[in-house]
Amino acid sequence: MVCTMASLRAMLTSACTLRRSPGLSAGLPADDAVLLDAPDERLSPALVAAALGEFEPAAKLLATTRDAAEWETRDRSLARLVTFARNRDGWLTDWLAAAPRDPDALLVKAELAVRRAWESPAHAELLREVAPLITAAAEADPRDPVPWRLALDHARGTHASHTVFESLWEQAVRRSAHHYGCHVAALQYLSAAWYGSHRECFDFAERAAEDAAPDSLVQALPVRAAFALLHDERAERRTNSVQEDRIDAAADLAISLSAAYPPGDPWPAEVRNLLVHVLVARGRWEEALEQFELIGRYATSFPWASVSDDALSGFLDARADVRLRVASSTPSRGRAGHGGLRGH
Predict the structure, then answer these.
(1) Gap between the Cα atoms of 127 and 212, Å rounded
(2) How far does CA 51 lie from the centroid of its chain?
(3) Domains of the chain: which residue ranges?
(4) How far is residue 60's CA from residue 106's CA, in Å, rounded to a whole number?
């Protein structure tokens, strides 16, 4: 049996005091050097400007990503700009007033409306109301796959049928066959928490990874499927050996993906944080420590917010626990070669 979410939370709670112990963080950045969801060097100026009420740097960044078809960077930058706009959107209001048909401004407007709709208990009804904004963003630049990622999220929230979902998915992959954001949105729709199952989720993720380049973020889809299974407390009690093998195979694939990027690179930071979370749940301590070293100072809210009210503390506590277990050579009781945790 894999480590349950309840036991993982308990483990992280006990690690809270351990991470303050001296001599346990060799080779790792100090706690106060770790950053949560730190923007990269391209995004930082746009966020600083937005804080000052200026939209031009954000407009330039998104226009550059669109012109160069940098769809992954575009989607990631959009997400961070919208997170900022949820509480401070004056810069976006000014942008829309200055350029009401700007494809990038329309995309930010649509994403913000979708986010706000999802926050409401009546999200299905509110999401239906914002559908024209997604359509407007998609029509503003027909090459862009990012509005179709929004459309897939919208389909999930409005209880769209599999037929509708498949038609949206076809439009998304026509624009970018291996766009990570669209794949994640599809994976969520197909998950057991929504309209699919854990097996369907794994099947989709594994097929997508097989078709993608070795350094594509799509290689991380199976580990996202593994996380969904580990996070499903209803499924934990009946996880079988086949599922455990798929979880470990997903982690192995994500380790290979992580190795394709330099240590301390912010681009794969979320993937590495997700991977280390799964490795911790599987009791693969040495490999988890290696990923913490590759992560460096770049902690991400996902997935740590799922096990802690304070995502940064969740990251630091897990790191301290892993460091302690490796340092003390705790005997493992799991799968040969992996130290998988069969009970905790």
Answers:
(1) 31
(2) 24
(3) 1-38+191-344, 40-189
(4) 14
- Tens of pLDDT along 268-281? 999 999 999 999 99
Q: 146-157 vs 71-85: helix axis angle to the nearest 10?
A: 60
CATH class of 40-189: mainly alpha
Tell me the one-letter amino acid at 177: A
Q: Is 299 strand, coil or helix? A: strand
Q: What are 134-155's pLDDT values in tens digits?
A: 999 999 999 999 999 999 999 9
Helices (H), the chain: 5-18, 44-51, 56-67, 71-85, 90-98, 103-118, 123-129, 131-140, 146-157, 162-175, 180-189, 198-211, 221-231, 233-236, 241-259, 269-281, 285-295, 301-304, 311-327
Beta bridge partners, 36, equal: 299
Residue with tokens 């380790």: 255
Looking at residue 336, what is its pLDDT? 41
Estimate to the nearest angstrom the gap between the alpha carbon of 56 and the chain centroid. 27
Q: Compute the distance between CA of residue 83 and CA of residue 122 in angstroms, rounded to an integer.
A: 20
pLDDT tier for residue 234 given thresholds of 50, 70 and 90: confident
Reference 288, options 35, 28, 30; nearest CA is: 28
Q: Bridge partners of 35?
A: 298
Contact 102, 95 (CB under 8 A): yes
DSSP annotation string for 227-273: HHHHH-HHHHTT--HHHHHHHHHHHHHHHHHHHTS-TT-STTHHHHH
pLDDT for 333 equals 44
